[in-house]
Amino acid sequence: MTAATWAEVPKGSPFPLQNLPYGVFTPAGDTRARVGVAIGAHVLDVAAVLGDDTFAHGALNPFLAQGRARWTAVRAELTALLTDARHRAAVTPHLHPLDAVTLHLPFEVADYVDFYASEHHAANVGRMFRPGAEPLTPQWKHLPIGYHGRAGTVVASGTPVVRPCGQKKPGAAGELPGFGPSARLDIEAEVGFVVGTGSALGTPVGTDAFAEHVFGVCLVNDWSARDVQAWEYVPLGPFLAKSFATSVSPWIVPLEALEAARVTPPERAHALRPYLRETEDWGLDLRLEVRLNGQPVSRPPFSAMYWTGAQMLAHMTVNGASLRTGDLYASGTVSGPEPGERGCLMELTWGGEEPLKLADGTSRAFLEDGDEVTITATAPGADGTVIGFGEVTGKILPAVAGGRS
Amino acid sequence: MTAATWAEVPKGSPFPLQNLPYGVFTPAGDTRARVGVAIGAHVLDVAAVLGDDTFAHGALNPFLAQGRARWTAVRAELTALLTDARHRAAVTPHLHPLDAVTLHLPFEVADYVDFYASEHHAANVGRMFRPGAEPLTPQWKHLPIGYHGRAGTVVASGTPVVRPCGQKKPGAAGELPGFGPSARLDIEAEVGFVVGTGSALGTPVGTDAFAEHVFGVCLVNDWSARDVQAWEYVPLGPFLAKSFATSVSPWIVPLEALEAARVTPPERAHALRPYLRETEDWGLDLRLEVRLNGQPVSRPPFSAMYWTGAQMLAHMTVNGASLRTGDLYASGTVSGPEPGERGCLMELTWGGEEPLKLADGTSRAFLEDGDEVTITATAPGADGTVIGFGEVTGKILPAVAGGRS
């Protein structure tokens, strides 16, 4: 049955009743952050409308920790409040215009893990970084490769990104390494999974427990300094090339809003180890868009990802590693098979060799100071609606002058 | 002037007055954890003796956040209380026998970073993993290589370690990867640095601000599954091979207790970038000992480390990454130049090819179920004393039977 909301939802809004993504906001003229859900051009104050202190926090974590049954119950309650016109008078005072609130980082990040789950991205990177070798490393199609990132520098959408400084490969063997502002500053358009309920140390979490542990999905921009990365990453992986900032969207779309977006992931090249087999399809038909200074430069399809969020979760815990409320794991760059579907500049400009031409007549190999990057996404929602993810955005500020070298 | 304590400090105790390491404990018959300092064979209840709620927590974090001036003041106050005999009657009721208290993980870990700062270790690993190539990667002597680990699986000393399962390299090209309990389970004897005060995003922290941000030092055992690591680690570094458990000692030795342990680090092969140059020597003369089932198997010297804790801190933040109270960064395996000074079994047994002979007549290539590994350390203290670090210990439990494969 199609539920209709009494709330005003402008045509084309990313936030129909069937979405109800969670965020943390401060109303205009107020100082206390609290949990809200987006509906149309408004945010509903969940703490106020439910009279529940779980939501009177500057982070979703207390709610995330309550688990799937509670997430379902609250979603049903909010849907009822926004559907039954008898609640309209009581609820309306708790609707704040979205353009008049401040949005925050929606949850306290416990551990942050970044995967490498797009075959197209990994193969493109392999071709550029290891020319002549097989584009994918031997284990790539047997397990979702991942690594830990810096949780403390996960920032809210809109936080400016200061161009990082770092060491770079020497010009010639025997020379000392260079140092300075990254000249190959890049984005990575990614999808993030937010863990609600934790797990016990020593107990793997199976693919079939995905919806029990994962609350929802957000957008992630994993800013990357490619010149720093090239010099530092062998043998222990990326470190300073990534740890200066990772931006996340203000809205966490609940898994329940994505039922209609579930798709079968691409065919697998090999039989998978039982712990990576899925009994349900957790591919997701999210369509991302990357805009550079307002101009669309890529449309990465998340449905093309080789590994699903459920497989990433199972792999991350198969060694007994525990989960905590607030863990964030991201997909890695989302790239599709077509050139216009690549989720980072390194791929879009083929290592900087084929600069992007922008509408203002300029071109870009990598990001310049003042550039603003915005990632959005949509997915099919229930009742033929379109689920929007809002956006994750960030502007590049110049490197700190006079910094240590 | 040499201060003498009225408290009983048995000869050879790791905890003389000049040490006063901080931990978190629960007294026998009580349920509330609080902060204590070790003195002789006792732990002093700091919350009770100072009547200060900062210490009435199950983690050091509130105290860590207060900063260097406060750390110095509290240390002076505790030293005075334990020195001036007039306080004896008032303080004595707050001394609990160490063997009757429960010790906990001493702080909530924010981000965990692991470095690779021993030249001897890195060169040995290079020889084994990349035979025929230069043992050290080209950047090794230009920057301290590091990567992020899993903060959520940093556990207190004594926590049993369940043998992890994972994928392993296929026997031959074209075969499917293996899966099962790690058959090459290893330790890494490391030294950890505990960050007290945080820093602002975008602002590097210099080597000269080391003592302003770092509160103290602990021991770390970074358990490692070498077979899992060999299959997973290219190109993004170690992940599941490390994330199942990292054990830390219950006592954090304040930097102030290590003044007499400061030494000049080894001579550098190259001129270093200014941000890595030190105006003070932060090499530390810590002498580690690794015991396997009670038998000493290695004595790694921390003074042989190429990179110091101050350099690791400066490198970790040179890209503008912020620090948070509770950040833990570890040195990586501490190995000296001699065979008996290697800090992991992979080196001690040369990849398992030269098993260690134990006193009980058995031998070990890697860890067996039931094995217990204990790491201790000492350092020169003030007034000719010896500063002890207590111990970090853990016992291997069998892999979970019937686990997913």
From TrEMBL, chains A, B:
Which SUPFAM superfamilies does the entry mention?
Answer: FAH, Fumarylacetoacetate hydrolase, FAH, N-terminal domain
Q: Which domain of life is it from?
A: Bacteria
Cofactor(s) for this UniProt protein: Mg(2+); Ca(2+)
Select a single GO molecular function from the record's annotations and give it.
fumarylacetoacetase activity
Q: Which Pfam families match?
A: FAA_hydrolase, FAA_hydrolase_N
**Enzyme's top EC category:** hydrolase
EC annotation from Swiss-Prot or TrEMBL: 3.7.1.2
| InterPro entries in the cross-refs | Fumarylacetoacetase (IPR005959), Fumarylacetoacetase-like_C (IPR011234), Fumarylacetoacetase_C_sf (IPR036663), Fumarylacetoacetase_N (IPR015377), Fumarylacetoacetase_N_sf (IPR036462)
Q: Its annotated pathway?
A: Amino-acid degradation; L-phenylalanine degradation; acetoacetate and fumarate from L-phenylalanine: step 6/6
Q: Where is the Fumarylacetoacetase N-terminal domain?
A: 18-106
Q: Which UniProt keywords apply?
A: Calcium, Hydrolase, Magnesium, Metal-binding, Phenylalanine catabolism, Tyrosine catabolism
Where does the record place the Fumarylacetoacetase-like C-terminal domain?
113-387
* Protein name in the entry: fumarylacetoacetase
UniProt organism field: Streptomyces evansiae
